[in-house]
TrEMBL record:
Domain DUF58 per the UniProt entry, residue ranges: 214-329
Keywords: Membrane, Transmembrane, Transmembrane helix
Signal peptide: none
Keyword Transmembrane appears in the UniProt entry: yes
Keyword flag Glycosyltransferase: no
Sequence intervals crossing the membrane: 21-48
Superkingdom field: Bacteria
Record-linked PANTHER family: DUF58 DOMAIN-CONTAINING PROTEIN, SLR1927 PROTEIN-RELATED
Protein name: DUF58 domain-containing protein
InterPro entries referenced in this protein's UniProt entry, alphabetically: DUF58 (IPR002881)
């Protein structure tokens, strides 16, 4: 590994070596053997210290065992560091590691600087030895936590000074802290405007593979829908009755542009969208996700195609854990129009956004063809989305252990 070395106190050691060597020579010339032995011992000590600190830290390596962890807010994990040393042993060293504050180190001395925790760990490792250091971490807030800086400081054995080594290589490690999950009150009703497989009393479509009975024939009925056996039995024409069905696919659209004078608007919107994704996964409803954060590619915004199941839920949660209010955004209405033009809209549309005049106009237009839900309940003080403690649900088992 590549380390940058910073050394302090070596000039004092070298000056002491010169002074003690001169005094030892003079003492020897004056036949002061005891005094000569004392100066020689001091010279040997300083020479050993100079030699030791010129070689210490060579072939010193630091690795992180787990490359990526996934946890919920309030859950705990362990950051496992594997340290391997070279020939020269290291004593009384201090390892300082800077980590982003999505996670909170526990039971470790630390300082917080503008979203970065500096945690310190004592280190002592012998010659050609390998040790493990386990640092307990706790999920503090939604986001991504990475190790940004690693420094090890080795103090001088005698006197002031130290050798400090700073790692020049990046450490491939990150902790994903998922958004808080709050069970969704109510339910998502399927749209009656699209054919599908979900039973619904009021729908424009019928499933011809699920007959539920017969009724008297009327002139507007199709000829192929006549039930001939029932007609012969009833002595009058009978028409087949089929189960009314509709599609229940959902598209979840998130507007990350914050409302004026709302500092926590971004996080509350993300939590609200997470609740909808949790509800759809629990009820096996296929859903897609669109977020008005700019990306590269043919689709200039974040779009996750429709799917269902645990793997799809984890993909959505990882995306929501990585987005930030500092990312470049695009107008939410432009995303809505783009999805409509590409035919990416589902029969049921959930818009997690604050209200705007242009947004209300598009919602009114879409409501003639789709089931549109404009959700801004996170703004109300009486809502349950302001709870500080997350609740465990049956979807918590979706998260794989790191």
């Amino acid at each position: 590994m590549k380390w940058t070395r910073y050394e302090t106190g070596f000039s004092a050691i070298q000056q002491g070596m010169v002074i003690t060597f001169v005094f030892a020579i003079f003492s020897f010339l004056l036949s002061q053997l005891l005094l000569t032995a004392c100066f020689a011992a001091v010279f040997a000590t300083l020479a050993y210290q100079n030699r030791y600190f010129s070689k210490v830290g060579q072939h010193f390596t630091l690795k992180v065992k787990s490359k990526q962890n996934r946890i919920l807010i309030g859950d705990e994990e362990e950051l496992i560091l594997e340290i391997e040393n070279g020939v020269v042993p290291i004593w009384n060293a201090v390892l300082t590691m800077s980590i982003e504050d999505a996670v909170l180190p526990k039971e470790v001395p630390l300082k917080n600087y503008s979203g970065i925790y500096d945690l310190t760990v004592p280190v002592a490792v012998g010659s050609n030895k390998k040790i493990e250091i386990k640092i307990p971490l706790e999920g503090k807030r939604r986001g991504v936590s990475r190790i940004t800086r690693v420094v090890i400081e080795i103090p001088h054995l005698f006197g002031d000074g130290f050798v400090m080594m700073e790692l020049d290589e990046p450490i491939y490690y990150q902790s994903l802290v998922y958004p808080k999950i709050t069970p969704l009150d109510g339910s998502l009703k399927s749209s009656p405007f699209k054919p599908g497989e979900v039973e619904q009393r009021q729908s424009l479509y019928r499933d011809t593979f699920q007959p539920v009975g017969t009724r008297d024939y009327v002139p507007t009925d199709r000829f192929d829908q006549i039930h001939w056996k029932a007609s012969a039995r009833m002595q009058k024409l009978q028409t087949k009755e089929f189960l009314p069905v509709s599609s229940q696919n959902v598209v979840l659209m998130l507007n990350v542009i914050e409302k004026d004078r709302k500092s926590e608007d971004f996080e509350r919107k993300v939590e609200r969208l997470t609740s909808y994704a949790h509800f759809c996964t629990s009820h096996q409803i296929p859903y897609s996700v669109a977020i008005n954060i700019r990306t590269f590619g043919a689709t200039p915004y974040i779009f996750i195609p429709a799917n269902q199941g645990k793997i799809h839920f984890l993909k959505v949660m990882e995306t929501l854990a990585q987005i930030s209010d500092k990312h470049a955004k695009m107008p939410f209405e432009d995303v809505m129009q783009s999805m409509a033009a590409k035919g990416q809209l589902s029969p049921t549309i959930v818009l997690v956004s604050h209200e705007t005049n242009r947004l209300n106009s598009l919602c009114y237009k879409w409501s003639k063809q789709y089931k549109v839900i404009l959700d801004h309940a996170y703004e109300g003080e009486e809502q349950k989305w302001d709870m500080t403690q997350p609740q465990l649900t049956k979807i918590d088992s979706f998260y794989p252990s790191a």
